[in-house]
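Technical note accompanying the year-one report. For the benefit of new consortium partners, we illustrate the data format agreed upon in the data management plan: each record pairs a sequence with a structure-token string. No post-processing was applied to the example shown here.
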Amino acid sequence: MAQHHFFYLAVMAVCVAPLAAGPAASPYKQHGSLKMDQAVLTVINQLDTDVVVSWLSERCYQCLYQQLGVVPARTSPDHNNSQDFLLSSQHAITLQVNSSLLLCTLVFHFGEHGNYSLWLRNTSTSTVNCSMETDREAVNSYIPILVAVLVFGGLALMFLLLRAIMGLNVVSALLFRIGGTFETQRLINSELGSPGRTVTPVTDNILPPPPSPSKRLRSLDTFRGFSLVVMVFVNYGGGRYWFFRHESWNGLTVADLVFPWFVFIMGTSIALSINSLLRSGCSRISLLKKVLWRSLQLFIMGVLVINPNYCQGSLSWEHLRIPGVLQRLAWSYLVVACLDLLVARGHLDMLPTEAWWSSCMDVLLYWPAWIFVLLLELLWLCLTFLLPVPGCPTGYLGPGGIGDMGMYTNCTGGAAALVDRWLLGEKHMYQTPSSRVVYFTQVPYDPEGLLGSINSILMAFLGLQAGKIILHYRDRPSSIISRCLIWALFLGVISAVLTKCSTNQGFIPVNKNLWSVSYVTTLACFAFVLLSLLYYMVDVKKWWSGAPFCYPGMNSILVYVGHEVLEDYFPFRWQMINTQSHAEHLSQNLLAVSCWLLISYLLYRKKIFWKI
């Protein structure tokens, strides 16, 4: 059970009435009657005793078996009893068959829309034989992803080929000549139509303007935009694939990667922007006011975005959810920006480079901020592992529900949930957490709660450290890359120790719901590596311009708020012909993301950027 898993989705089992006839009479045998990610299992009982069929998802760690149903004993040697069940096809399921004793246990991964038969037979040795047979092959639900990859990959290759052709000297000369002819004709017509206007020489319009130097790192916009695009895609549904949804508890999926990366790159941007503003002569007091105002705007915007559509009726203040993504960004930004304002140096070129500590000055110069963040992390550890939680073991990090053999049903999240209930109240928390999917939890739990926000500050601060590396070694790309990779290695070792290189058996498992410290170190490790690669490809070697991800990265707040507010409007969503089709969901979600990429590109061309 304790294997490496990086993705999750629901495991559903629905009991239906016993069938009087054999399995061929089942109404679920036709694909059209099945929902997405479901398979039909027919249990055929040839035994002289009733059997109880139970199930357990491989994604559920140390969980109780859930009863699937009872299959009556056969009525005569020539008439077997059977019963159909609907099962999830996302993950492998362990089936257990019992009468008065355990008869058999079987692990099987059902395919989507497949039909299967489990035969229970007596053998000559008075033992029970359980055998699985495939009555109808499953459909391949991953073909739409393959098609999407081929389509977008083909478009990218066509773009690269077109750019290569446009870069040829012969093509460039031809376009230059055609452009000059058109421009000359335009000027002639313009002169004929308005004789009073001053004509600019033709050569001044044909020659490209000299490039203006810019110190903006395009790799940061690319990293931010990539995280945002994936976030929008998974928020829109991700084609309803299980690996594009959040993990139910411990572990990682694609959806669990992007928010921490967004927080990380926000910290990097804080370091660069504050340094630039200090060098331009802005006072720290004026910058502090801007930080406070921006944090307040982010928080208010987050509360407005995550709560129900106001067009559907008045909002109940009693059930207003307070935590959220933008709220956590606001909190992390406020703390980390204030810390940097206290310790940031405006003129790094005046620092000594011959001192013994110069090789570590990107850390040592800011030691008060490091001490503060380490104290915050100590506070998280103390509250998480020492705060008594009524009815739950101290230091509990589990999901509750049917996890831990059902001993701690209402202990979801341990101290993190307790702190949120104390300070926010249950009705102001997220009511349908991802732990309900696999662990069938019944209590509210907020993945953007208060205790986890401490570790989001740590994530932003590690991003700030990446920004300090860029600032202190800005003229030495090799030093920037090597130091980022050293940080990645250091954080990776911490993660390996905390998790014991396992999903569930470490001291502190990787957990997005809790924003555990191992979750932060693991995602920060990935972030340092990814930032190094993008910096080398985009800013150093200039192999890639960062398009199309750099465009939403420059307008991240507008894209995030816009995709939340306009989620249910055309062309981002429409009424589907087949709501149980991965292909149609994936097409809809990819089109919605493409629309936001196009919008962000048009805004970039118009030089429209929404800043708060």
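Partners are asked to follow this layout when depositing records. The longest strand covers residues 128-136.
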